[in-house]
Design a protein that fits this description.
Elements lengths: L6 H14 L3 E7 L15 E7 L9 H8 L2 E5 L15 E7 L4 E7 L11 E5 L21 H23 L3 H27 L13 H4 L2 H8 L7 H26 L5 H16 L7
Parallel strand pairs: 2-5
Antiparallel strand pairs: 1-2, 1-6, 3-4, 4-5
Helix pairs in contact: 3-4, 3-7, 3-8, 4-7
Length: 287
């Protein structure tokens, strides 16, 4: 077993480092540990922001980081990467997993704090630079769909399934998986979020990438959602696709009824027919 530093030990390290360094003016915690509605567990990151007089002494200074926070196991520094072009906003970010398993996402910035209502906790403030922090309790809550957004989501879901079907017919597995699990699933997840929000008076968050779906969906619907994932066998992919259609239709109709929105049943039916014909190989070659 590897003994991780406790939350209190981590916060003590973060705060004491700031207190002892005159270049650090204030410390803010954001992310899930600052959100009272987030599920708490040992795997949560420590999202820390140091507001400093000058970023330059900290820029890619991994020696300073290890001296203050411990031995680094794995790290990413987005500002030094070519794969992920930096945004050139003047901050430097250390994304770090330490040898004891704790992870800190540490942002170093000299820019003034701009309050947007996001959950945040002031851990230490020498000069009052974080006096304006005023987090909103509902910042991450699911918002109800407008009628246009609802219709656009339905259209994107049904339309993009044609690419999944054609990809299967062409034996283009990477394309199929990308279209289904990224493009189409994004719309399925959005509709699922609205369904959860609707049933919890829009007072909950589904979490990043739907990580709380299991918590908030009825057991039957979560089982259906889980069945939308597949291995690389095309027959199983078809089953997952049709299960996704069944789930999407079911929850979209409930949302439409609740908000008084129309549901384009013809779009649904015609795409189902189109995919079924492709699956059966019934389109005559017109080349």
């Amino acid at each position: 077993m590897i003994k991780m530093r406790t939350e209190q030990e981590m916060f003590d390290t973060v705060i004491n480092t700031a207190k002892e360094d005159e270049r650090i003016l204030a410390v803010m915690l954001n992310g899930s540990r600052s959100d009272p509605h987030a599920v708490k567990d040992v795997y949560q990151d420590y999202d820390i922001v140091y507001f400093v007089t000058d970023v330059k002494p900290f820029w890619n200074n991994t020696k300073w980081l290890e001296e203050k926070f411990g031995k680094i196991a794995v790290m990413q520094t987005p500002e030094t990467m070519g794969l992920i072009p930096p945004d050139n906003d003047g901050k430097f970010v250390f994304l770090t997993i330490f040898e004891d398993g704790n992870r800190i996402d540490l942002t170093i910035t000299s820019k003034p704090y701009v309050d947007n209502g996001e959950p945040a906790v002031v851990l230490f403030d020498k000069t009052g630079v974080l006096a304006q922090v005023n987090p909103r309790d509902d910042f991450w809550f699911i918002e109800p769909p407008t009628e246009k957004f609802f219709h656009d989501c339905c259209n994107e879901f049904w339309w993009c399934l044609n690419n999944v079907a054609k990809g299967i017919a062409r034996d283009e597995l990477p394309y199929v998986m990308n279209m289904f699990n990224c493009v189409v699933r994004e719309m399925l997840d959005k509709m699922t979020e609205w369904y959860i929000g609707m049933n919890y008076d829009f007072r909950v968050s589904a979490g990043k990438s739907g990580k709380y779906f299991k918590k908030y969906l009825p057991g039957e619907l979560y089982k259906m959602y889980a069945a939308t994932y597949s291995d690389s066998d095309y027959e199983n992919i078809w089953k997952a696709v049709f299960k996704a259609c069944e789930l999407f239709r079911r929850i979209a109709l409930e949302i439409a009824q609740r908000f008084g929105y129309g549901y384009n049943a013809a779009e649904d039916e015609n795409m189902m027919n189109y995919m079924t014909i492709i699956k059966k190989g019934m389109f005559e070659n017109g080349i």
